[in-house]
């Protein structure tokens, strides 16, 4: 499984992009997106999903 970013809630702050240990988050169009082929939900890196932990808007980075 992977996480996704709810585009309508994303403020384009870029906090998640720099926290992603696999480089799965990139800016596309007008928002950030998570590549489901690269997203590991931070397994093997952290105990919690870093995108969700650093996002200033609750429930913007959610399980896909």
TrEMBL record:
Pfam families: Fer4_7. Keywords: Iron, Iron-sulfur, Metal-binding. SUPFAM superfamilies: 4Fe-4S ferredoxins. The keyword Membrane does not apply. Coiled coil: none annotated. Residues 1-30 form the 4Fe-4S ferredoxin-type domain. This is 4Fe-4S binding protein.
């Amino acid at each position: 499984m992977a996480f996704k970013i709810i585009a309508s809630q994303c403020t384009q702050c870029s906090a998640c992009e720099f926290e992603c240990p696999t480089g799965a988050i990139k800016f596309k169009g007008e928002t950030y997106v998570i590549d489901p082929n690269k997203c590991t939900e931070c397994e093997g890196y952290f105990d919690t999903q870093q995108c969700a932990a650093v996002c200033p808007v609750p429930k913007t980075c959610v399980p896909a």
